[in-house]
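Dissemination and training. As part of the outreach component of the grant, students in the summer workshop were shown how a complex can be specified as a set of sequence lines and then modelled as a single object. The example used during the hands-on session is reproduced here so that future cohorts can follow it. Participants entered these lines:
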Amino acid sequence: MKLVVVGATGAVGSVIMAILDERDLAISELVPVATARSAGSTLAHRGTTVTVRLLEPAVFDGADVAIFDVPDEVSHEWAPVAAGRGATVVDNSAAWRMAPDVPLVVPEVNPETALAPARGIIASPNCTMLTLVVPLAPLHRAAGVRRVIVSSYQSASGAGKPGVDELWAQVRQAAGSPEGTVTAGRAREVLGTGTAFAHPLALNVIPRIGSAQVGGYTSEEVKLAEETFKVLGLADLQMSATCVRVPTMVGHGVSVHAEFERPIGVEEARAVLTAAQGVELRDDTAAHVYPTPLEAAGRDAVFVGRIRQDPHDPRALAWFAVTDNLRKGAALNTIQIAELVASRLSDGQQGP
Amino acid sequence: MKLVVVGATGAVGSVIMAILDERDLAISELVPVATARSAGSTLAHRGTTVTVRLLEPAVFDGADVAIFDVPDEVSHEWAPVAAGRGATVVDNSAAWRMAPDVPLVVPEVNPETALAPARGIIASPNCTMLTLVVPLAPLHRAAGVRRVIVSSYQSASGAGKPGVDELWAQVRQAAGSPEGTVTAGRAREVLGTGTAFAHPLALNVIPRIGSAQVGGYTSEEVKLAEETFKVLGLADLQMSATCVRVPTMVGHGVSVHAEFERPIGVEEARAVLTAAQGVELRDDTAAHVYPTPLEAAGRDAVFVGRIRQDPHDPRALAWFAVTDNLRKGAALNTIQIAELVASRLSDGQQGP
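and obtained this result:
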């Protein structure tokens, strides 16, 4: 199939290119696309080089699938152009996720929704939501989830390459500064601030991601809840999220407290998660085995550990999960969706 | 009064010495005490120097108050020695906090319990618990708390000076390393590990603090719950905590979800917290005003922001709070308790 990757030179786009090299999606032609700043440069692809093209309608001619990792407004404009030329769009922005006629797909959870996208557009979810929902979905199938309280530990790369660059610059500033200065009200001056984050992120945590919304929740927290409702098909799930940026480069963590319809113990939860697709257990607290961002980096699974039954409510479980937000949280999920589309296309070619 | 400070040269002890200089506790004699490694050295105190003495029974002779910031086992052995010689002990370890005949005191919450300690020992709570309970207590008095779900963002200094030194060493390693290496499974090798933390902490989060307990909770999580129950006097409070170390130097954060007996909105919560002792509101999410560790460092208040009413439960509030764990979370709270004891002593001297 002919695959177009729009945003191929960005933080997630680079990971998409790397993962395509690792997996066996049958690609007859790969077209990386970017803005004028990168167009004309070349990228490695499965032992050859491919030239980055400028985003224009003609790049989608004859394309089977177009993966987009671009800002919402670019996707809003260009996804319909690609779909109009016959490509199935797999979009990683927030532009289409909540549209009623656009499926929001987590291949381990609701793959069937990818098979007939009404508008030719399939949305891939928010990276923190994937960390939450990949283990939550099988537990929900087992015991029926009714309430989720979640606090996140999100890395700088969730803000793209500018986020990573800004945190690296601040880490270098911190390393070169006298120890006392960063903890004596002089942090902003010593560490510096940039455009990705409103406060210094090195040696700090920032409990706001996205914009402030009505009711005090942020856009990131609203997305996390709404996308969870949509993927699980649960309009009446109760959820309250707090999204926090922490000074890690890669890997989003979530501390989850979930109430189910019936009692569920740690052993049953472990059995369910061991059998679940896309989940790896790291759950031996006594032996210091639990998910961490540095161990999740570069890996594909959602890692789950610290599984506990609420001592006051046998129907509630707590756990901690981490996934590489650039891989499963973004690039890998879009490629898994493209693989679902490819299998549908090849089924179609085989005829009835 | 004669004040003894045991552990005066440690991470918290140094802050105790600094805060004593700032506040007006009437001290006739100050005796700093430490182990053999520091005994004989001198410390600055209110414009003079005082000599650090070795821990032995005689240092408590004639003492009115002895503040202890030492490991649990040292406190277990030596607090009764000091109390036996007539000093009122204010202890910052976990050794005495849950003893039924030892009051656990947060001066803003339950100062009355400090007035007549049966064994001559008063315990000061865990630093994360203080960040939780200083705003929770007035909200509880207003609306009756019945359930708390909390996830923490705890700094390296919670593990003392070894924790701070270990994180600084790793930050310097990270700053001198190629960017890719810390995120490609080589973190342990590149950043190094030490004795304070089981995994690299720089550019990472570690979702275990303390030892693993029955049921999968950690000792830190159990302490956080039990101390909250004791300070609020609520044996039937439902609580589930997840304690996570993050790569900050100073300042413990908590993401709190609390259910109350009746509906409580954001405006009422803000009014309660504005009137509360020891709390400062930082609650304007749209303007990027919310608590952060770097802004809390070196300050005395518990900073509270991101106050939200749960969209699915009008009886539940979420908020984010941060305090300097070395000051209010440890040193300041013990000094505030010493001030309560001093006022009791001077009331007693005035006679009936």
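Residues 327-350 of chain A form the longest helix (24 residues). Students were then asked to discuss how this feature might be tested experimentally.
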